[in-house]
Amino acid sequence: MKGLVKIIKWAGIVLCSLIIGLIAFVQLSWDKKFDTPYPDITASTDSAVIARGRHLALGPAHCISCHVPMDKVKDAEDGMVMPLSGGWELSIPPGTFRAPNLTPDMETGIGKMTDGEIARTLRYSINKHNGIVFPFMPFQELSDEDMIAIVSFLRSQEPVKHKVERSKHSFLGKALMAFGVIKPEGPKDTPPKSVEIDSTLVYGSYLANSVANCNGCHTERDFKTGAFIGTPFAGGTHFLPDDFSEGYSFITPNLTPHKETGIMAYWDEATFILRMRGGKIHKGSPMPWATFARMTDLELKAIYRYLQSLDPADNKIEKIVFAPGE
Ligand code: HEC
Ligand code: HEC
């Protein structure tokens, strides 16, 4: 009997030490610093460059769907244009994440950030404090030209004073960073200097993969890690109810031209353009419909041609929209 008590006592001590060790490890090592060099990007004051950046930020790259105040998110979703003064907030198990003020205000915005710091956030997911940016912004492969355009547009906005608190990581969020599950994502290949704007497969692929994140939502992902596990564009990612979905949840449809299972298999180009301009139909959908409606005909044609050129993937998505509680 005495022996057993002793064993239990020792097992308890070992377990407690392990837990304390784990907590200490996470607390001491989550805030990793990175000295990744700044991309060689310099903002321009050329009005055509700024106009391109504005189009990207309010259109295909949809910065406006997150970098606006919480009480304006709905208006932005309905297509209203407003300064990118930040405030959108999402509470998920890894923490509370807040999209900061991107207007050039000196105290509360990007006024003191350099062009290189802004560009490095987007290309390498490393923030101005040299820490990890959580993977909300899949813009690693933006061309240099488009990166310059976006930074130039951000600088051209009227400064708006709007303080947004920094994101706050939970213990889980810190552990994910300490153990390297969440790490800074950089580009897979050297990003292009520029991509010719034309209704080509090259431009369609660039928009769908590197700018508008169609693949990020329409390719099945692992729930916990966010890793891509499905055939690209074949649908299947679950969107559970969150603060913005009004209780609805979704599974993304298959966008490949598979005759039985692809949602667009029988759509012609005009139908696709009409649908992309048509805005949100399903309440609570996470797809930034209003910003995508700002894409030009040429951009939508390029995306249509690219999606139709993909190998048909046989992936039946039985149901796309789930009502609250379903
Ligand atoms: C899905 C929502 C979402 C979209 C879309 C989005 N952002 Fe963000 N952004 C965030 C969040 C959340 C953070 C804070 C992340 C963190 O704290 O880890 C952030 C942080 C930033 C930062 C701050 C980095 C720092 O050093 O503090 C910059 C700059 C930025 N975003 C620019 C952009 C630009 C430009 C676009 C469009 C091309 C964009 N974002 C699109 C959600 C978004
Ligand atoms: C943030 C996630 C997200 C992004 C980014 C996204 N989608 Fe979607 N998409 C969804 C969800 C969820 C649905 C199902 C709900 C709905 O129809 O709104 C959907 C539905 C669709 C549909 C079916 C519409 C219908 O009427 O049945 C098409 C077509 C589509 N997306 C194309 C695209 C294209 C093209 C892009 C890139 C330009 C894109 N999506 C980017 C999440 C996304």
Please, could you describe this protein's structure?
This protein has helices at residues 2-29, 47-58, 73-77, 115-124, 144-156, 171-178, 201-211, 214-218, 269-277, 289-292, 297-309; strands at 89-92, 95-98, 168-169, 238-239, 249-251, 321-322. By secondary structure, the chain is mainly alpha-helical. It folds into three domains: 1-30; 47-178, no CATH class; 201-322, no CATH class. The strands form two sheets. A three-stranded antiparallel beta sheet has the order 1-2-3. A three-stranded antiparallel beta sheet has the order 4-5-6, with no helix packed on it. Helix 1 (2-29) packs across helix 6 (171-178), helix 2 (47-58) packs across helix 5 and helix 7 (201-211) crosses helix 11. The longest helix has 28 residues, at 2-29. The radius of gyration is 22 Å and the shape is globular. The N and C termini lie far apart (53 Å). The model has no long low-confidence stretch (mean pLDDT 95). Bound molecules: heme C (HEC) (2 copies). The site of one heme C (HEC) has 23 residues, from helix 4.
